[in-house]
Amino acid sequence: MPVAASKYNLRPFVEAPLSSSSTKPIELEAIDLSLYKEGPENLPVRKQLAAQIERSLSTYGFITVTNHGFPVEKLDFLKSLAQGILETPLEEQKKYLAGALKSDLEDRSVSVGAERGSGFKPKGYWSMRNGVEDSIIHYNFNNMQQSLFFDTEKNNYPDIVKDHLDDVAEYYRFLHGDVLRKLSNLSDLVLELPEGYLYENYFKVIDGDIPGSGGGAGRFMLYEGMDPEDSKKVENTWLRGHSDSGGFTFITSQPILSLQIRDYYTGEWSYVGHTPNGLIVNIGDAMEFITGGYFKSSIHRVVGPLDDQKEYRRLVLIYFSKPNDTCIMDPEPLKSPKLERLGISKPKEWENINFRAWNEEKSRLFGKKKVNDTQSEEPKLVLLYGRLHERWHQAEADFSLEEAQKKFEVIRLDAA
Ligand SMILES: [Fe+2]
């Protein structure tokens, strides 16, 4: 496997020790995926797993997955590869940028930006509040589920990436074809749909047909320590609260206490704890819309580490799985008996849109000054196709667009 390891001086990534803090992380449902077995005789076990994910996805929008089946030693190798890639000097990164050098310099009419483009996002791309810029380096991969991923003519990869495309594709294809497929099938059981329905209609991969195919973006992401003065200005929030735009997001669990979920109902923040060799999985907006709001695309953020983990860097490998571009962002096509029984249907203010429309507009708002440079923890809310671009207030008792517009500064898309 690591034939080129010595060429790139790859070395193991050193994880932080567990924090000795008494802070109690949130207790998420842990799905043991080794219990998932195909076949009618195993349906009762799958139903139990489905009940477990239903409890978590309809409340927190997060679960943890253990025993996913991807070999630990391969994952360790990918972490050392990620470290090698993300330590590329800035001058070299500039030859392989995912977007411009700053979000606000991005000409979005020609570029999808560093959120969605393939390549490096150097530190300082995103604008945060009080004039601070982010301290995160990431490298994005696109089209790993497609043969196009291996086309080194059409893709501008640095050598270290070019030499490891097989390793990268193996991981992301496993997550999509195996873990995502199983979670989709369990979601079918929750929604009382035939098993396979969600995967077939939203996530199935069709090689060569990118818009018609399910897929996703891979991201290697390294959080370096933020300047203490800057950290103060953002009240120790290193990545602002946001919801993901896609289907299911998969994040490698790591020991630094830093990822926090905002409770959908109370607005309280809680830490997500560490599950060794586990994955943290959360729902994105697309899954929230497809289920008419039954699954929660919760706001989450990353805060600076506690004192006993401050000397360590936070490295995560992320997979943002996405449904195909043309699928509809509301529950009507599903005809789910479960949602019907719960009285959940498409809210009248939601415009009829597909995933592409949502994803394109939402991602370009993430690091823009006009939306994010505010005095409070929340960005300005942007009205996007009859929905607010981030899911901060949906569960409030009197939540409606009309009420939201009275209480918060909501800007229109064309003004963002
Ligand atoms: Fe996220």
UniProtKB/TrEMBL annotation:
<keyword id="KW-0560">Oxidoreductase</keyword>
<dbReference type="InterPro" id="IPR050231">
    <property type="entry name" value="Iron_ascorbate_oxido_reductase"/>
</dbReference>
<feature type="domain" description="Non-haem dioxygenase N-terminal">
    <location>
        <begin position="30"/>
        <end position="101"/>
    </location>
</feature>
<feature type="domain" description="Isopenicillin N synthase-like Fe(2+) 2OG dioxygenase">
    <location>
        <begin position="232"/>
        <end position="323"/>
    </location>
</feature>
<protein>
    <submittedName>
        <fullName>Leucoanthocyanidin dioxygenase</fullName>
    </submittedName>
</protein>
<dbReference type="InterPro" id="IPR044861">
    <property type="entry name" value="IPNS-like_FE2OG_OXY"/>
</dbReference>
<dbReference type="GO" id="GO:0051213">
    <property type="term" value="F:dioxygenase activity"/>
</dbReference>
<dbReference type="Pfam" id="PF14226">
    <property type="entry name" value="DIOX_N"/>
</dbReference>
<dbReference type="InterPro" id="IPR027443">
    <property type="entry name" value="IPNS-like_sf"/>
</dbReference>
<keyword id="KW-0223">Dioxygenase</keyword>
<dbReference type="InterPro" id="IPR026992">
    <property type="entry name" value="DIOX_N"/>
</dbReference>
<dbReference type="Pfam" id="PF03171">
    <property type="entry name" value="2OG-FeII_Oxy"/>
</dbReference>
